[in-house]
């Protein structure tokens, strides 16, 4: 039996469908929205609808954008000879915040994960290959996550790019800045040692 009523129960249920939101958080969010003035709830609802209707995918890099091409792909000051391949639009945003990379991106929208039923055909790999056939790209930087799925995805992409004879690199993995070595796992320490560079 739903103790909160049908409408409140449905709101809790919808919040509970969001990633990272459990039952208690969904309930807290629902009660917060209900306790606000109607204008606040309408503003939130309108923002959700406008974002859902106004955000699309860039036809070039496949990231979420409000224009096509997106701001990065449409920027003539970006270096078109390098493409960084990332799993998610959030990864692209993280690299953009560093202000260290001036090339272009390609967003896969996932990683190969047989356990979750995600194979190469579920990723935006065909679009990547189409971009590389133009002959302008000199380097593909594989910036997938340093986990089993990300590594498998990077290896798969490197394998399919080999016949194209385009330089393919993998981001270095290592010790986080501000971290203590005694708390870093063995795999990360080994990767940090392998990726060392001269100073």
Overall 3D shape: globular
Computed structural class: alpha/beta
Query: What fraction of residues sit in β-strands?
Result: 5-15%
Alpha-carbon distance between the two ends: 66 Å
> How many beta-strand elements?
6
Structure annotation, total helices: 7
> Residue-averaged pLDDT, rounded?
91
CATH C-level class of the largest domain: Alpha Beta
CATH fold node name of the largest domain:
Dna Topoisomerase Vi A Subunit, Chain: A, domain 2
Mind summarizing the main beta sheet? Answer: 4 strands, parallel
Task: Tell me the strand order in the biggest sheet.
Answer: 4-3-5-6
What fraction, in percent, of the residue positions are helical? 40-55%
Provide structural commentary:
With 199 residues, this protein is α/β, with parallel strands linked by helices. The chain has two domains: 49 residues, RecR Domain 1 (Helicase, Ruva Protein, domain 3); 110 residues, Dna Topoisomerase Vi A Subunit, Chain: A, domain 2 (3-Layer(aba) Sandwich), CATH 3.40.1360. The chain has seven helices and six strands; from the N terminus they run αααβββαβαβαβα. Strands 4-3-5-6 form a four-stranded parallel β-sheet. Strands 1-2 form a two-stranded antiparallel ribbon. α1 crosses α2.
């Amino acid at each position: 039996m739903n103790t909160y009523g049908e409408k409140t129960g449905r709101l809790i249920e919808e919040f509970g469908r969001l990633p990272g939101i459990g039952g208690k958080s969904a309930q807290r969010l629902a009660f917060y929205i209900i306790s606000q003035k109607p204008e606040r709830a309408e503003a939130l609802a309108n923002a959700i609808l406008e974002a859902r209707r106004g955000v699309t995918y860039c036809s070039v890099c496949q990231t979420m954008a409000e224009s096509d091409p997106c701001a990065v792909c449409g920027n003539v000051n970006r270096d078109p000879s390098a493409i960084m391949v990332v799993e998610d639009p959030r990864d692209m945003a993280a690299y953009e915040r560093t202000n260290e990379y001036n090339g272009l991106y390609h967003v896969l929208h996932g990683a190969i994960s047989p356990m979750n039923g995600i194979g190469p055909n579920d990723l935006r790999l065909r679009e990547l290959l189409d971009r590389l056939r133009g002959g302008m790209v000199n380097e593909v930087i594989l910036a997938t996550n340093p986990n089993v799925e990300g590594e498998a995805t990077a290896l798969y992409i490197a394998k399919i790019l080999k016949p194209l004879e385009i330089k393919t690199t993998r981001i270095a993995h290592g010790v986080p800045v501000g971290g203590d070595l005694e708390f870093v796992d063995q795999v990360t320490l080994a990767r940090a040692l392998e990726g060392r560079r001269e100073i």
